[in-house]
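Appendix C reproduces, verbatim, an entry submitted by the partner laboratory led by Prof. M.T., so that reviewers can inspect both the input and the predicted structure.
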Amino acid sequence: MALLKAAATVGGYTLLSRILGFARDVLTAALLGAGPVADAFFVAQRLPNLFRSLFAEGAFSAAFVPLFAGRIAQHGPENAKRFAEDALSVLLAALIVFTILGEIFTPEILSVIAPGFAADPEKFGLTVDLTRITFPYLLYISLATLLGGMLNSVERFAATAATPTLLNIALIIALVVTRPPSGYALAWATSAAGLAQFLWLMLSCHRAGIAPRLPWPRLTPDVRRLIGIMAPGVVGAGATQLNLLVSTAVASLLPAGAVSYLYYADRLNQLPLAVVGIAVGTAILPSLSRQVRQGDTQAAIETQNRGLELALLLTLPAAVALGITAHAILFALFQRGAFGPAEVAATAPALAAYAAGLPAFVLVKVMTPGFFARQDTATPVKIAVVSMASNIVLTLALMVPLAHVGNALANSVAGWINALALIVILHRRGHFRLDARSRRALPRIVLASLGMGVLLLLLEGRLIPGEEAGLLLRAGGLCALVLAGIIAFGALALLFGATDIRGLKQLLTRRRSP
């Protein structure tokens, strides 16, 4: 499958999910604002998402997809399917244990990840209740991750990429239907969505002819190998998630609303990260795994160069735009109801701080497949640990002078440490180098992005209306500003030679290796 086509499939559905997620966040901000109920629900989501990232999405996919894809190529689909069934049964058994333990020890865990909530017994009790309701989401979404990995391995990206839309739809329904909106309704909707996502991907696997059965859990040699490859990735994912836990814990000690400010800022920043970085990383992993297995080093380097070029072409201008227009975006789309000017003013600098690290996090998503394709999950772990330590030190150092903005800034700096270390190590091992095309294109992408940023600075005050304007005028002004930015970047990219029509066509039509 062509790289751009595969990335567009993942990115297109991810964009749809993020648009729905954005609508969900706008509703949440308007109805719940940045108050205690919103803080409680966002922390309640953090716990199942922690273990999902720790044991499922990141580490599991990184280990499972290359093994499953390799088995299809070397031993056929039936052999690969039996391996997936064994992995599924072991994963399910582990998830049941973790879910039970999580339900029992929720108060103790929350005392660690949100210590500031303990000062308000009512808020802490609400967070415990919501966390216990959302915790089964971990089980469902982790099983869905395995099924999604199977589908991605046979290059059926659409069903997996479309799955997150179910969560956003469920939460939007909960916000619209319940009056007044309740944290309990959102928590129940989260768990229901997890079950729906699992059933959707099971149906998709059935249609693809790879639906797994559920044998009795067995630690077969292949499953042991999967765990052995996955274990360092779990530690690496744990380092990343520990960054988020430290950020949440520090935010819980700050004045009320800090957790919510960071949540809303991060959600906006996650839109280009998911649509571009995760999409490109997901799309290149199967092709990269095949090329590495076949010993075609040059093709693997070219695949990663094109992924890097495509990711930064789409992400650098997004980072510049988010940083410059943070206040305008939040004012135009979020300022209403319970989310007023004070909340906008508090969230905008956090969004700008997160945006500074956006290119770094995209680079991490694009470069880590270079390790995963070679079944090396240990090196990214070591780098992640260094990044984690940097984040913790910076978060604690900046919490007093910068409050919650310090959390976001520390996260971005740690992301750059992670990304640059991945690139340097891949280069030293001879697994990656910038080819002539990328060396020419990347500086020009930077120049085009900065030029667009200057234009946005000049236009923001003219296109975004004042406080008295209604939603339609605000949204219209923001759309005009975004459109101007897109046109400016496209024109400057072509003018500076950052890309051309022929180059984009090559990305679209380049076929994978057999």
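The chain has one domain: 3-509. Additional entries are available on request from the coordinating office.
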